[in-house]
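Q: Sequence in, structure out?
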Amino acid sequence: MRLKPYFLPVAALSYPWLTKEHPDPRGANLARVARALKALLSHARIPRLGVFWDFGSLHQHPDPPNGVLRTEEQNALFKQGLGCLGTLYSQQRAGGTQGTRGTNVAKYFDRGWCFTEQSWAGLTKAGYLSLDLGKMRGGKVYNWSSLRADCTRGGGRRPPLLPSAFAAELEKKSFTNGKDDKPLVKRLYEAAFEEQFGKATGLGYGGLGWGDAEAAQLAEVLASGAAPRLETLYLGGNKIGDEGCKALAAALGKEGAVPRLETLTLFLGANRIGDEGCKALAAALKEGAAPSLKARDAPPPRTWQLRRPS
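A: Exactly. Output:
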């Protein structure tokens, strides 16, 4: 039985253009995306799905080699659309990434826009809602569950970056129009970061393969006080060890870092936290870190299940 949706999910696609003239000249990405969308629509609560695909969703220049460019009105709409990208990619519905190569062969994470889109998608989205479509297997027929399993396997999703860290990384990336695009995406990233973390009450970063370095990066974000409303933090099923736990403990101990945090899920057995990490966390809590904390290890909260928003 198909159930009525409680919302319209939107899939925001992130991918490298395969040539400068056309993002997908032979339709390889289109075929992959079509298979993924069919799988997503097999979910009982997703009878319909919105898709943001820059090439079709934003006005492009019709024929640049022959001097046919966007009209003034189309250009205004294009710029307006660019201003909404941070909201689109950072929202809590699925976004796919792809690594298909063409003649324009810069790697995905070396491209400024791809890096930015992935960074937006990695802010507060639950782990299973950020899908790498490049991991789909040829010839396999997918449903929602198998697509999620294949497209999140092996980790690969990076932890969120502070706006300052994002800006520093961005300097290493390539843009076709770097002079104009870099300042724009820096502003858009900072705005999305503040919006998403500012309203986040639950963060689910489970099963992403994160280790100590990723835990330390997340700790920097938490220590900054970016998530003042955070109540639940789920980090189960990763590879976090003592050093990562120490970094998290130090972050929780920062005054005003996570004043409303009530549940911290580490699943100590699934992670790799030993005595040193546990002692550091215990010491921080004894000193008053995370004053609202009630549970330090619990089953995954229902927050991460697909449900009707409250």
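The first strand starts at residue 10 and ends at 12.
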